[in-house]
Amino acid sequence: MFLGELLLFLVLQQTGSGLEVTVPLSQTASPGSNVLLPCTFRVKDSTINPNFLAVVWKLGDKTLVKFDNKGLTSNPKASIDPQAALKGDATLTLHDVTISDEGTYKCIVIYSPEMGQKMIDLRLQATPSVKVTKKALLKNQENRLVCSATDFYPRAITLTWLLNGQVLLTSDMWEPQGNADGTYSVNSSVILNPTETQEKQLIECQVEHESLGKPITDEYSVIYGEVPTVQVFSLEMPGHREMPGHRERVVICEAKRFYPEVITVNWKLNGKMVETTSRNSDGTFSKRIYYHVHSTPDNEPEEISCEVQHETLFSPITKTHQVRYFSDQDKSCHLGLVALLGVMVTMAGISILSWVLVYKMKYFQRFMVSPIYGPETSNDNDKVTFYCVAFNCPEATEVTWCVTEAGGDTVTLTDRRTKDEEEKLLGCDYTMRSENSEDKGLHKVITALNFTPSVSKHRKTTIVCRFISDGKTKEEKKEWSFTLRKPQVSDKKPIALSLGDSRDVICSINLKDFNPKDIGITWSCGAGHYQDLETIKDKITENSQQTYDAKSECRIPGHRFTEPGFKVRVTWRHKFMEKPEWREASATDLPWCPQMSDISVPQMLHGEEVKLQCTISGYFPDALTVKWLRREAGKPDLFPVSPSDKYKFPVEDVTRREDQTFTCTASLIYTVSRKTDHGSEFICQVGHPSLERPLEKRTGELDVVGIPVVDWFLDDTESDRCLLAYIRRFYPQDIDVKWSYIAAGGEFEEHAKTDISSRVKNNRDGTFRLTSSCKIAKLNLLAPKTYKVSVTHDSLESPIEKMISRHDDDFFSVDEKGEIPLNKLSSRQKKKHLSKSADTGEYTGKGRFFRSKRKE
Questions:
Q1: Helices (H) and strands (E) in the chain — how many of each?
Q2: Contact 765/673 with Cβ under 8 angstroms?
Q3: Contacts for 777-780 with beta carbons within 8 Å, 24 or more apart?
Q4: Range of weakest confidence among 10-24, 212-226, 467-481, 549-563
Q5: Which one in 59, 300, 740, 741 has a CA-CA gap of 20 to 30 Å to 113?
Q6: How much is the pLDDT for 241?
Q7: For 381-408, how does the pLDDT look when each residue is reduced to its tens digit (9 = 90+)?
Q8: How do residues 630-655 score in pLDDT, each as one tens digit?
């Protein structure tokens, strides 16, 4: 409670009738917006003495703003305009309101010795967003769909599910959960069990909330999917020559026959993941990844798990494979065992030959070879591995790899090499290894080719894997290339800028078509001196050209772009580049430049107050400067318009839109003068950090008009009696005055021109005045009883008309209320008032005043 407030309240508890405080019952606002809480007051004095005035705003027991003869005490969150308060306007402005600002506010006005106070409720409303988690459904099975409504306030909300426009009654809505900013989020789910006959189904989630004018929906057109099948297998790869005894094993995880294509296949261990996806003939997809395991002979058996996630699954599929490692000595024993078994098979071969001939064709029809799998590209100096699998072979299979290099040379490797072939391959970088396993009389062969790529040899390479089983041959071919590429960046606006939810700017860059994969990207910002920024997102992906693309993002508070000379810089380093490259973005690169509407110009009426308005929208950050300029009629120079008794600048109402940009309305209020404003021009000029030079809009030359003001009299000062119309403050000069009367036939007839006289004069303010008189006959039986005068002018939507009735020797002004005696103008009054009018252009007598509806 501010100093002395309690004492003042006790002493001045009784409020007199001279102070009136007015507020609306409530105001509604959105989080993040600026809101006005109107509070106006009137005192019995014509002017407010600041020494007797005190204004206090409170929320509960907390004092927000205090203004008295000692000055203004406020905070960045709440403020009032002291100048407006001295004129009876104590409106409170709340900036960037949040849910916590909701409540009952109290406007207290003390004008000694009186006090008045009123309450106003501020209600916050946040509009929800709705999203249905879209997933492929499984036919003839239960499927759960989830709908989320987020960031809404107040808490009450309704979510409704519809299937092809019909309400689903089986949905389940959870309790709304509070967010950190005071808003709420809620989920609703529904179980569906589609059948084979149900096609073209449209699922809708409809949200109703008091902040919405009408319900909002998110919809999902049902697609059907297939659950993946998963298997895991492995093979041992050649070890490094310089590290004898070390072995490398490839564990392969295969997911196939699934739809749609998007799938996640991961290893439970932290290994290197490589992915390939192929489309099957029936429209489904298959995906394989393999995991390299490096070991030494003393390694113990190890279990490796492959986890597959797909939108058709309630929970991931996990397959586990046990990897066993063997030393060179173990392998010698295994090879000896294979030789012994070979002799036994030869002795038994004759007895089973007839059986083989019978089933030979049957087995061979099942003999299948997979595509060649391997990396589409590679880091320089890193070995690459290609592998291929043969299934359902009728007997042990011979494997051959052929590599045709860029220069045309071909290297051939087989798993059954002669001594001469072994000698030829000495020093060759290519190695291969095959592993054969048997199940129910059929063989499966997993083979791998390993080498270190180079640009000179492998910029264009053909790789062939050939299997020979029981005299039959099947092979697969793969075209492969290895090149080094420098990261490519767009020349136009390489740094993309977007808005976050917290008034920050997200900066991102896309680097494309580079190889090898390794790249370093860093962000920094500042004005001359740069400070490192934290990267919020780095993502490297393989593209369709078999090279790599990278996207990197960082986040910067939006207000930093208002600092003079501020820039954000991104720097990247790559093996193919001799030195780092960088790009910068500054405030002038912000895409949220202000957009100005045309200035709304009402009809310019002499002597009346007008408001010029210009809406400025779509800008960020909230750092707008608005200036009004004026050009006098017929002159080129522009002069700034400053707040004064003549010119008023209302507080700009700044609002934040759904796209996080800002909108405000700039206004200029003043009283129009024909003399100074006709032909002049006003200019609204806007500055913003995103602009290299200010924007402006012009009113064009103003056309000021004056609406006639008409007074009516009976003039008995001369020998001839006259009806008098005094017309003033009109512009332009052209004006038409018609006098008429009701003749004997009941129709209006115009008076003879000889009975009418008119006199036009200039006023000092640039308008005109006119005195029009009409002689009327002396009282007799034939004299007219009803007269009419009509005034027509360009500023009028319809003429000003006046009916005057005559009863005996008295004249009356006729209107919708009845008849009122028409004022008579004495000689003294005529001399006094009309001569004064000649000086000022204004009539100050007591004649009747009439004004027609003006043109809009």
A1: 7, 65
A2: yes
A3: 778/721, 779/808, 779/809
A4: 10-24
A5: 59
A6: 40
A7: 567 888 888 878 887 788 999 999 888 8
A8: 999 989 999 999 988 889 998 778 99
3-state secondary structure string across 424-487:
HCCCCCCEEEEEEEEECCEEEEEEEEEECCCHHHHCCEEEEEEEEECCEEEEEEEEECCCCECC
Cβ proximity of 682 and 612 under 8 Å: yes
- Could you tell me if residue 272 is left (phi over 0), alpha (psi between -120 and 50 degrees) or otherwise beta? beta
Sequence-distant (6+) residues with CB within 8 A of 813 are 712, 802, 803, 804, 819, 820, 821, 822, 848
Element (H, E) at 743: none
Distance CA 451, CA 382 (A): 9
Amino acid identity, residue 157? I
Q: Which of 89-98, 168-177, 281-290 has the lowest mean pLDDT?
A: 281-290
Q: What DSSP designation does 634 have?
A: T
Measured from the Cβ of residue 291, the count of other Cβ atoms closer than 10 Å reads 23
CA 759 vs. chain centroid, Å, equals 65
- Residue 454 pLDDT: 76
Alpha helical stretches, state H, 693-852:
827-840
What does DSSP say about strands 609-619 and 595-596: parallel, antiparallel, or unpaired? Answer: antiparallel
DSSP 75: B
d(CA 234, CA 253): 9
Quote the tokens at residue 831: 């001399």
Asked if 678 and 702 touch (Cβ cutoff 8 Å), the reply is: yes
Q: What is the pLDDT of residues 502-540, one digit of tens each?
A: 889 999 999 998 888 889 999 999 987 889 998 888 899
DSSP annotation string for 349-383: HHHHHHHHHHHHHHHHHT-EEPPPB--SS--TT--
Q: Supply the DSSP string of 189-252, one letter for each residue.
A: EEEE---TT--S-EEEEEEE-TT-SS-EEEEEE--B-B--EEEEEEEEE---TTSTT-EEEEEE
- Over residues 761-788, the mean pLDDT reads 81
Distance of CA 655 to the CA centre of its chain: 14
Average pLDDT over the chain, rounded to an integer: 81
| Count of CA atoms in the C-beta half-sphere (13 A) of 477 | 4
pTM strictly above 0.70: no
The sign of the CA dihedral 501, 502, 503, 504 is negative
Q: Are 204 and 155 in contact (CB under 8 A)?
A: no
> Is the separation of the CB atoms in 211 and 155 below 8 Å?
no
DSSP assigned state of 83: H
Residue 731 CB neighbours (<10 A):
25
Which helix (H) or strand (E) segment is 101 a member of? none
pLDDT at 666: 93
Percent of the chain with pLDDT strictly greater than 70? 79
- How far is 442 from 436, CA to CA, in rounded Å? 10
Residue 276 class from Cβ within 10 Å (0-12 exposed, 13-18 middle, 19+ buried)?
middle
Q: Which of 244-248, 552-556, 691-695, 734-738 has the lowest mean pLDDT?
A: 244-248
